[in-house]
Design goal:
The complex is a heterotrimer of chains A (288), B (782) and C (166).
Chain A: E1 7-9, H1 14-23, E2 27-30, H2 36-41, E3 49-52, E4 62-65, E5 68-72, H3 77-82, H4 84-89, H5 91-97, H6 111-117, H7 123-130, E6 134-139, E7 142-147, E8 152-154, E9 157-158, E10 165-172, E11 179-185, E12 195-204, E13 207-216, E14 223-224, H8 226-232, H9 239-247, H10 262-283
Parallel strand pairs in A: 1-3, 2-3
Antiparallel strand pairs in A: 4-5, 5-10, 6-7, 6-10, 8-9, 11-12, 12-13, 13-14
Helix pairs in contact in A: 8-9, 9-10
Chain B: H1 31-36, E1 51-57, E2 63-69, H2 71-74, E3 79-83, E4 116-117, E5 123-129, H3 132-140, E6 143-148, E7 161-163, E8 166-167, E9 171-177, H4 180-185, E10 189-197, E11 209-215, E12 220-224, H5 230-241, E13 248-250, H6 267-279, E14 283-286, H7 289-295, E15 302-310, E16 316-326, H8 337-345, E17 355-362, H9 377-395, H10 399-406, E18 415-421, E19 424-428, H11 433-444, H12 446-458, E20 462-471, E21 479-486, E22 492-496, H13 505-517, E23 524-527, H14 545-572, E24 579-582, E25 585-588, E26 597-598, H15 599-605, E27 620-627, E28 635-644, E29 651-661, H16 668-688, E30 717-723, H17 741-744, H18 746-758, E31 766-767, H19 771-781
Parallel strand pairs in B: 1-14, 10-31, 12-13, 16-17, 22-23, 29-30
Antiparallel strand pairs in B: 1-5, 2-4, 2-6, 3-5, 7-8, 9-17, 10-15, 11-12, 11-14, 15-16, 18-19, 20-28, 21-22, 21-27, 24-25, 25-26, 28-29
Helix pairs in contact in B: 9-10, 9-18, 13-14, 16-18
Chain C: E1 4-11, E2 14-21, H1 26-33, E3 52-55, E4 58-61, E5 74-76, H2 89-96, H3 106-119, H4 125-132, H5 143-165
Parallel strand pairs in C: 1-5
Antiparallel strand pairs in C: 1-2, 3-4, 3-5
Helix pairs in contact in C: 2-5
Classes of the chains: A alpha+beta (288), B alpha+beta (782), C alpha+beta (166).
């Protein structure tokens, strides 16, 4: 299991990296390596060129910007997990990160790498969708932005032109006191989620004033349950209302494989969504 | 009582209870190099000018090979040679070890596929290059043209064709005794079950490796990176390659886990040897993990259709079992052993007046299969204990009570079954089964647990408890020998035909030697796995080393002790019976002050130039052999508490007890380590691990992302109860092996606990128990 | 096509100048080019953790880093744990608590546990299980590895206390 031969490039700036991306034949960008390197070692990916982003300046860092957390694409998952801003303003992200691989893999893995890999089970992709992330992309034509909801084009295929790269992610904050919960089911601790659920909600006067419900692991990209959200918006979050919202999961289209057939994913989704909503509600100061 | 069971009265036996060093949890002598990273595992072995071997493996499950094109690969930089079947046509099919079963020979595996490929992963060609990366580059360019044939993936399906004239059922292993038809006719009740165990295997953390080197100066072919069964492998390699056995040496360094699958003779072992001889350079092969999961022996896959006849009290009158063993594509070095073991060991600890079993040994287009920790027993304990639970449910009996009524009692020991396994008659040598059951239930708090379960269920939890009784086999003979010597510096060396799989064999043998000889165990050098140091040996498997090599060690060390006391007595002008050896010094046994003599000095006086030795074989050294025609049968109980998450179907083992009577624990810490490690593997087989295939025979469990090995997070709180109530009468140490009891009963116990949590006896009929299945069961029960 | 790179790796404080293809993993460079075979390969796809080394103090899977990526980093392997030939408290604890059987996963666990103890010697039980779950052992069933970590922490506390009293 040794990688096929490739030429290695070690740019130091975003411009340099973009130039390489645009001029080389059959290149791959190397971020944390936790997803790409197994593919290289197994020879299911065999680029002619590997562009290593680990020394590129300006791709790391966590800052607050206009009511959002702006995270450089090459920010290590571990750094994101430990950052005071993440804990203070994006507790959903903090909770989700505890499910991402293992402590050891988070030392290398990056948020950008996970987002661009777009594994259907990736927790960070689901969290980005739950938070309505905005992605900053740069290419030869300059910079552009797109919503996370437009990012998955197909199975593990991001809406990026071949010469483009993700440079940062912005995650808008929810107000202080919001309820949140990330739940997932995996066969073993630390495995990719078979199904995951992310819930965010705001309560005011005993009613839901804002809600975000997202499922991961059911399709190529994360699924925002807009119908379920609409049901809960303005409602009193009783146990029945939560069950009703979770029941929407029974009707979704889900991927199927022999280990986790579609009917089972739907069941998991309903279970996890209900638990996530209950927990989020409790954290928002309410009780079903 | 049969003659071969005559107890070892005439040889001095080790007294019961802890000795000076035996029976104590002393630290291992093996550990130093391992914690320093100075081990010598196969991948750490390197020779100058070595070539690297890379296999080209079949990508279809069953196909006729039309052509293998190697031109493009040959042109790659660093490539020295590429072989296909024609190049190794002179190497016969890989044989299997002696077995009474006939007719298996045509089904053995060639080192490279000849006219057909029969499983994905089968070696088809081989590349030799100067670097492993380049060898892999070249191997990718070898093109195999093949015509697909129909694929057989189900051992219960109608037979297919292995080759013209040979169908896919090489043999049926049948055993029977008693009046089985009458038992069913006269039964109060008949319970019928259909049960299956999923395909899984040892999957050690170190993949296989083999490094061959031809020492032309001495005309010796060396094979490094070996394990388990050096002497037999040496003899076969020699025979298959046309060399004399003395011209082949096998070496064992450190071994990263065996579990039954490492150390057998595989195609790659023969290929590195043949290549070293022909290419006149050392040849190194290290298996990668994806290869390992399709090329190293699989195990466990069996499907049973079993019936039990019982009387009104739930006592067994007869068991009739038909089972289908999925052997994979070829017969390997175990022949039909696993089927034989399953058939022989199925009755377990219970009184059984009549029995009939037919084990269908069937080939399919999957990776070939062989032994894995508790082979034939993990499977049949699952089947048998499911049967006992079903009997309990049918007759409205408590699950523990039904066992009590059927367990062979201590008074009935030794209990001979008119059955054999591995060529030896099954005689349960010793045991107090019900006594251990009581101890286990008490230790686990079984009775109080029933109340706790009721309370937790009332609070809405889905919880349950399960139990399984098992009998293991160990101490497989027929023999092993050990040579103990003390040199003129007082250094003690122990050379054995045993092998290591990482289990602590050196320490156990050193403790036994030290106990007998009176020296510090930590100063004993133990040599194992080396065919050039001892002429015969039977290796490490079947939990045999402590029994066989341990007994030989005991006797050899006692012999050395006697020799030393004799010589010292003459020198000190005392009688041998006045003397003893303490910390390497021969001194007065009564503890009174007096002259003493270091063992080093005694050894020096026994050197060949010493006048006293004229006419005698010099050296303070003795070699002793231990024979056994019977196996020893450790036994025990598994108890587990599980919790099921109704929403996800996930089964979590909260608390686990393994109670295991092993006769005597040479080192309780090592025994406990074996049991807990075995439990982890059993848990994998019960809940997580499975080799799955798609309908065309493509393996689906090809990486560690698909083949799920338990991590620490999946382990329950594990308690181990080591019992020494039933020492084996068959060897002077009273030991029975301890390697497999931790694994044996896990599938059965987990299944029983899941049934109990679901409040549905018989719910679990297949392993592994996966969350989707549990979810489905919950749906049907609701 | 594969270019060769001259790099210097700093392993356990020692400099190793080697020439390697870019595609050579850090694990292979450490083992084959620098001759330190204590770091083992169990899967080469980042699941088993046998290849764990410390890179700038952090445990990483050496099979998922290319050798060329590690130049300029401080790499610690199992061979660097014993100081002046003396086993570290953790290494000794592994022996005392029987936290190894075949020893193949042991270097990876030793490096992981070294990092854990350096980060938080008082780590809680659940967090310890979380951290240890990144590595696979096929022999021990893990219980003794936890005991060894706790014993090492205690030994280190006692050692520190003794040093402070001196």
């Amino acid at each position: 299991m040794k990688a096929a031969p490739f030429a290695y490039h070690d740019p130091r700036s975003i411009d340099e990296a973009l130039h390489l991306l645009a001029t080389l034949e059959n290149p791959r960008l190397l971020a944390g390596g936790q997803s790409l390197m197994p593919m290289l070692n197994m020879r299911v990916a065999f680029p002619d060129h590997v562009i290593d982003l680990n020394r590129v300046e300006g791709l790391e860092g966590v800052t607050e910007q206009d009511g959002a957390l702006r995270i450089g694409a090459m920010t290590r998952q571990r750094d994101l997990e430990e950052h005071p801003l993440t804990r203070a303003r994006l507790p959903l992200m903090t909770e989700a990160l505890t499910f991402v691989g293992h402590w050891q893999t988070r030392n290398r893995g990056t948020i950008g790498g996970s987002l661009c890999n777009l594994d259907p089970s990736a927790e960070l992709v689901a969290v980005a969708a739950a938070l309505d992330a905005v992605l900053e992309v740069r290419g030869p034509a300059g910079a552009r932005e797109l919503s996370i909801h437009d990012f998955p084009e197909g199975l593990m295929t991001p809406a990026l032109a071949p010469e483009e790269m993700l440079t940062a992610i912005r995650l808008p904050f929810w107000p202080a006191g919001h309820g949140y919960c990330f739940a997932e089911f995996a066969r073993r601790h630390g495995d990719y989620a078979i199904v995951s659920a992310a819930a965010l909600l705001m309560l005011e006067g005993g009613r839901v004033t804002r809600v975000s419900i997202t499922l991961g692991g059911v399709g190529a990209g994360p699924l925002r349950l807009r119908e379920a959200e609409a049901m809960l918006l303005g409602a009193v979050p009783s146990a029945e209302a939560i069950r009703g919202a979770a029941a929407h999961c029974e009707r979704i289209e889900a991927m199927s494989d022999p280990q986790a057939p579609a009917w089972y994913r739907r069941r998991l989704a309903a279970t996890l969504m209900r638990r996530a909503l209950e927990k989020a509600l409790a954290r928002a100061g309410g009780a079903a | 009582m049969t003659d071969a069971l005559a107890p070892v009265k005439e040889r001095p036996a080790l007294a019961r209870g802890p000795g000076k060093v035996v029976g104590h949890a002393v630290t291992r002598i093996e550990d130093g190099p391992l914690v320093r990273g100075e081990g010598l595992f196969a991948a750490d072995v390197n020779f100058p000018r070595q070539l690297h071997m890379r296999m080209v493996r079949a990508e279809l499950a069953h196909a006729r090979i039309l052509a293998v094109s190697t031109d493009a690969a040959r042109a790659m930089p660093g490539v020295v040679a590429i072989w296909t079947a024609e190049d190794v046509a002179d190497i016969p099919l890989i044989p299997f070890r002696a077995t009474k079963v006939r007719g298996l020979e045509p089904y053995c595996q060639p080192v490279l596929a000849r006219d057909r490929m029969r499983y994905v992963g089968e070696p088809v060609a081989v590349v030799f290059a100067d670097d492993p990366y380049r060898a892999e580059d070249a191997a990718e360019l070898v093109v195999v043209e093949a015509e697909e044939l129909s694929v057989l993936l189900d051992a219960t399906a109608p037979l297919g064709e292995f080759s013209p004239g040979q169908d896919t059922e090489p043999t049926i292993v049948r055993k029977a005794y008693g009046e089985i038809d009458a038992a069913f006719r006269d039964a109060h009740a008949v319970v019928e079950l259909e049960l299956s165990v999923g395909r899984h295997s040892g999957v050690p953390l170190e993949t296989r490796g083999a490094i061959a080197r031809y020492d032309a100066a001495h005309d010796v072919l060396e094979l490094h990176g070996t394990a388990k069964k050096q002497h037999w492998n040496r003899d076969e390699i020699a025979r298959l390659l046309g060399r004399p056995p003395q011209g082949v040496h096998l070496f064992e360094g450190h071994v990263g886990g065996g579990f039954g699958v490492r150390g057998e003779l595989y195609p790659e072992d023969l290929l590195v040897c043949a290549a070293a001889l022909r290419l006149r350079r050392p040849v190194k092969w290290i298996e990668d993990r994806r290869e390992h999961l399709v090329a190293t022996n699989h195990s466990r896959e069996q499907h049973h259709r079993i019936r039990a006849a019982v009387d009104a009290e739930g006592r067994l009158l007869g068991i009739d079992d038909v089972f289908f063993h999925d052997q994979g594509a070829y017969v390997r070095t175990h022949g039909a052993r696993v089927v034989d073991l399953a058939a022989g060991m199925l009755p377990g600890p219970y009184r059984l007046p009549a029995y009939r079993v037919a084990g269908h040994f069937r080939l399919t287009n999957k990776t070939p299969s062989a032994t894995y920790r508790a082979p034939g027993r993990f499977e049949t304990t699952f089947v048998r204990e499911r049967l006992m639970d079903a009997i309990a449910a049918r007759l409205g009996l408590d699950r523990v009570e039904v066992r009590r009524r059927n367990l062979v009692s201590a008074a009935e020991m030794p209990h001979a079954r008119p059955l054999d396994a591995l060529g030896t008659e099954i005689v349960l040598d010793s045991g107090d089964y019900e006594g251990l059951l009581d101890k286990a239930l008490s230790r686990f708090g079984w009775n109080a647990l029933q109340g706790e379960l009721a309370a937790r269920r009332a609070a809405g939890e889905c919880v349950g408890a399960g139990l399984a009784f098992f009998v293991e086999k160990s101490g497989l003979g027929p023999s092993d020998g050990v040579r103990v010597s003390v040199d003129a510096n007082g250094a003690v060396e122990l050379v054995s035909g045993a092998a290591s799989v990482g289990q602590g064999v050196e320490t156990a043998l050193a403790q036994i030697c030290a106990e007998a000889l009176g020296v510090d165990y930590a100063r004993i050098r133990v040599v194992r796995g080396r065919t050039d140091r001892i002429e015969f040996g039977n290796g490490a498997h079947a939990s045999r080393v402590t029994v066989m090599s341990g007994s030989a060690t005991w006797e050899a060390a006692l012999a050395v002790r006697a020799m030393a006391l004799d010589t010292a007595a003459t020198l000190l002008q005392l009688r041998p019976s006045d003397l003893t050896i303490r910390d390497g010094e021969v001194c007065r046994a009564d503890g009174l002050p007096g002259p003493s003599l270091a063992l080093a000095e005694v050894a020096r006086r026994m050197g060949p130039n010493s006048p006293a030795m004229r006419g005698r074989t010099p050296g303070l050294t003795a070699e002793k052999w231990f024979w056994s025609d019977h196996m020893a049968y450790p036994y025990g109980v598994h108890l587990v508490l599980v919790r099921i998450d109704r929403g996800t179907g996930q089964v979590v083992a909260e608390r686990y007890l393994v109670a295991n009577d092993i006769g005597r624990a040479i080192n309780p810490m090592l025994v406990e380590g074996q049991i807990v490690g075995g439990l982890a593997q059993g848990l994998g087989g019960a809940l997580l691990e499975e080799f799955r295939y798609d309908p065309s025979g493509q393996p689906l469990s090809t990486t560690f992302a698909d083949y799920l090995i338990p991590t620490i997070a999946e382990m329950p709180a594990a308690d181990v109860l080591i019992a020494e109530d039933a020492p084996s009468p068959l060897n002077p140490l009273g030991v029975k092996g301890a390697g497999e009891g931790g694994t044996n009963g896990v599938g059965a116990a987990i299944a029983a606990a899941v049934d109990d949590a679901l409040l549905r006896p018989g719910a679990v009929t297949a392993l592994p128990v996966v969350p989707a299945t549990v979810r489905r069961l919950l749906d049907t029960l609701a | 096509m594969s270019d060769l790179h001259d790099i210097t790796l700093v392993l356990n404080g020692e400099r190793h100048a080697v020439r390697v293809e870019a595609r050579r993993t850090l694990a292979d460079v450490i083992r084959e080019d620098c001759g330190l075979t204590g770091t083992h390969l169990g899967c080469e796809h980042g699941v088993c953790g046998a290849c764990t080394v410390l890179m700038d103090g952090q445990p990483v899977r050496a099979c998922l880093v290319f050798g060329v990526q590690a130049r300029g980093r401080a790499i610690r392997t199992v061979e660097g744990l014993a100081e002046g030939g003396r086993l570290s408290p953790l290494q000794q604890a592994f022996i005392d608590e029987h936290a190894l059987q075949c020893g193949y996963c042991t270097p990876g666990f030793l490096m992981l546990c070294t990092a854990i103890l350096e980060a938080d010697p008082e780590i809680g039980d659940q967090a310890l299980v979380d951290a240890l779950s990144s590595n696979i052992c096929r022999c021990t069933g893990y219980a003794n590895i936890v005991k060894a970590v706790r014993a090492a922490a205690a030994a280190m506390r006692a050692g520190t206390a003794a040093a402070e009293m001196a």
